[in-house]
Amino acid sequence: MDAPDGAFLKTAIGKKMTFMFLHCPECSRMFQFNPVAWTAQACEAVAPKAARGAKKSARQLEKLLARENVALPQAYLDHLRNGKSRPDVAIFRDEDPFTLYSLDELCKDVDVDGTRYPAVRQLAGFAQALAQAAGAGSKQAAPFSPAELAACLAIGEENTRILFIDSRDNDALWIYHLDGGDVEKTRFTLTSLIGPGVS
């Protein structure tokens, strides 16, 4: 266990939290952990390395998203299609930038608690885990209900944080923290992200 996870575990025990994620530095797996009951359930937040297949065309990727009932905002889809999208964005000063998913990366499978989701839909898995661990009335991802969080679209990541589009307005950008299930609003919107002048 690395130092940040160790410190967070001590805090979680003190606060009697019943849900958190820990990362194994040896196998790169992530575990859903209950520090009160001292039980863990294996899950992954990154797709396992698989054999490379033929690269899919943008049209094939869009069909895959449609089959998964993923409706990206049209302006963002156009932005991804034009091939000029930035690979990362600095959400906070003095912190590592978030890596933004390409159209191909949005469609890659991610394993959350043993269920596979397209990366763009991975919050559905975490919302389900939150609801199971803390009940449907969980305030852990407030102001999002588990159903609202499940409808949000992930568009990037940084270590244990996922950048996502607020499903309620399809514009505000938020961060989901894997190590606790909390959310944090950013100063960015999808409109400002795809427009000029983002550093």
Please explain how this structure is put together.
- With 199 residues, this protein is an alpha+beta fold.
- The chain folds into 2 domains: 43 residues, no CATH class; 140 residues, no CATH class.
- Helices cover 30% and strands 26% of the residues.
- Strand 6 and strand 7 form a beta hairpin.
- The chain is globular, with a radius of gyration of 17 Å.
- About 3% of the residues have low confidence.
Summarize the structure.
This protein is 30% helix and 26% strand. It has 199 residues and is of the alpha+beta class.
List the helices and strands and how they pair.
Layout: H1 3-15, E1 20-23, E2 30-34, E3 39-43, H2 58-67, H3 74-81, E4 88-89, E5 98-100, H4 103-107, E6 109-112, E7 115-118, H5 122-134, H6 146-150, E8 153-158, E9 161-165, E10 172-177, E11 183-189, H7 190-194
Antiparallel strand pairs: 1-2, 2-3, 4-5, 5-8, 6-7, 8-9, 9-10, 10-11
Largest sheet: 6 strands, antiparallel
Q: What is the total domain count?
A: 2
Helix tally?
7
Q: Structural class, judged by helices and strands?
A: alpha+beta
Residue-averaged pLDDT: 79
Query: What Rg is obtained from the alpha carbons, in whole angstroms?
Result: 17 Å
Could you tell me how far the N terminus lies from the C terminus, measured between alpha carbons in angstroms?
33 Å
Helix content: 25-40%
Order of helices and strands: HEEEHHEEHEEHHEEEEH
Query: Can you tell me the residue ranges where pLDDT is under 50 for at least 5 consecutive residues?
Result: 47-51
Binned strand content: 25-35%
Strand elements, count: 11
Oligomer: single chain
Main sheet: which strands, in order across?
4-5-8-9-10-11
- The global form is globular
